[in-house]
């Protein structure tokens, strides 16, 4: 797998005070069924949303099926509450022959306000898999579309 210094053109500085300057991969509303016994949104629900967002990025790059291999450095910074809008941003950080590292950030917005805050982030590692469910090499990158 490539090291993290081999970044794609879609990077995000951790020093930025707000969410990444791109559209979220997924937006979801935290619902009562997603709570833990204390009434806050269950961390597993949030992690599942992050896995979906990262998987979307990985599948687009692989142009096919991918499997989550590991999650590195998951850090919960603040809670998510029922009714919050959760925006998940994900981008490819690096890739190897069959694997990809995808950074995901989750940001929450209380439904009646505009302010947002980052609630968690993690690095997801995926491997491209073939029809035999075994690792398969990533296809060549597609050329960027021409603009007129």
TrEMBL record:
Gene3D superfamilies: Hotdog Thioesterase (3.10.129.10)
Signal peptide positions (record): none
Pfam families cross-referenced by the UniProt entry: 4HBT
Alphabetical keyword list: Hydrolase
Origin superkingdom: Bacteria
Domain HotDog ACOT-type intervals: 20-132
GO biological process: acyl-CoA metabolic process; fatty acid catabolic process
Keyword Membrane belongs to the record: no
UniProt keyword annotation of Hydrolase present: yes
Location of region: Disordered: 1-25
A cellular component annotation (GO) from this entry: cytosol
GO molecular function: long-chain fatty acyl-CoA hydrolase activity
Family named by the database record: Belongs to the acyl coenzyme A hydrolase family.
Name under which the protein is recorded: Thioesterase superfamily protein
Lineage, broadest ranks: Bacteria, Pseudomonadati, Pseudomonadota, Alphaproteobacteria, Hyphomicrobiales
């Amino acid at each position: 797998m490539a090291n993290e210094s081999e970044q794609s053109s879609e990077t995000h500085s951790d020093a930025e005070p707000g969410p990444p300057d791109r559209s979220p991969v997924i937006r979801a509303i935290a619902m009562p069924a997603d709570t833990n016994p204390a009434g806050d949104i269950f961390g597993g629900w949030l992690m599942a949303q992050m896995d979906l967002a990262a998987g979307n990025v990985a599948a687009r790059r692989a142009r096919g099926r991918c499997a989550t291999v590991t999650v590195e450095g998951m850090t919960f910074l603040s809670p998510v509450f029922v009714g919050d809008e959760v925006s998940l941003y994900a981008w490819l950080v690096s890739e190897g022959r069959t694997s990809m590292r995808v950074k995901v950030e989750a940001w929450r917005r209380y439904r009646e306000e505009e302010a947002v805050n980052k609630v968690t982030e993690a690095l997801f590692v995926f491997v491209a898999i073939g029809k035999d469910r075994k690792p398969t090499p990533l296809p060549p990158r597609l050329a960027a579309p021409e603009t007129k």
